[in-house]
Amino acid sequence: MPRPYDLSSVTALICFEAAARNASFKNAAQELNVTPAAISHQIKALEGDLGCNLFLRMSRGVELTEKGAFLFVAVQRGLETISDAVTHMRDRPETADVTIRTTTAVSSLWLTPKISAFWKSHPTVTVSQIVSDVPATAIRCDLSIQYGDAQESPEERHKLFQDRIVALGTPKFAAEHGIGRVEDLLRAPLIHMNNEETDWTNWPEWFQALGHTIPKGRRFSVNNYMIALQAAQDDIGAVLGWDGLVKSLMEQGRLVTLVPDNIPSPRGFYLKIHPRAGSKARLFASWLAKSS
After folding, report:
1. pLDDT, tens digit, for every residue of 230-281?
2. Domains in the chain, ordered, with CATH?
């Protein structure tokens, strides 16, 4: 009988998701309690089935290719949906002291390093992340980080940071396209975010705020900010960056400001405290707000 779903091996997809999330075959193996060789075998089988490379193998670990990043978002969404359903059916008490929900970009670039620092002074408080780029429905959490206006919700919120929005790319990209002024960006390849679920400033709005027309250069569109940042690092185009959020990438020199012009972000990143938050969740929320 024909299969109802066109899927690769579920085992391979689970190994792929763990390797992509950890950016490491070794860490994925530890998480899944198998050997790194087993993870590598599953990834190679998956790449063979799909007919494309999903990872760039590097000395310091692995990085997703563009197609790998596309698959990662899809697999993560599917596993999150299954996990949510199983959690609700089990109806078991939470094992973590604090559960915080945020997007992939905020988790990777900002929150995870903050949690590591928090544990140095509060080693007994366990913090669990729910990482998703899909709008929350009935997911249970104590805290969540959102990009928006504090007046949009009557619930308790604390402002974490509000960035300036800059044009980012690699030095190689800037040299190849002769970028030194905003006018140069109008004809350069640009990476656009196509995600109606978020309200992040886009390129036309950025140029308009600086008194310029709509850009006419080549357009590359994605629906995930981490993919957009990776595409910029791969010299596909320039990307808009929230300077506080992408600070680590700029400090590492992986992305640089292409022009001196920038605009203030019209919205900030806020920490939302949900009604179910207990004393430990509020302790973490207070520490997070003060450390921002």
Report:
1. 999 999 999 999 998 999 999 999 999 999 999 999 888 999 998 888 999 9
2. 10-91 (1.10.10.10), 98-161+269-291 (3.40.190.10), 164-265 (3.40.190.10)
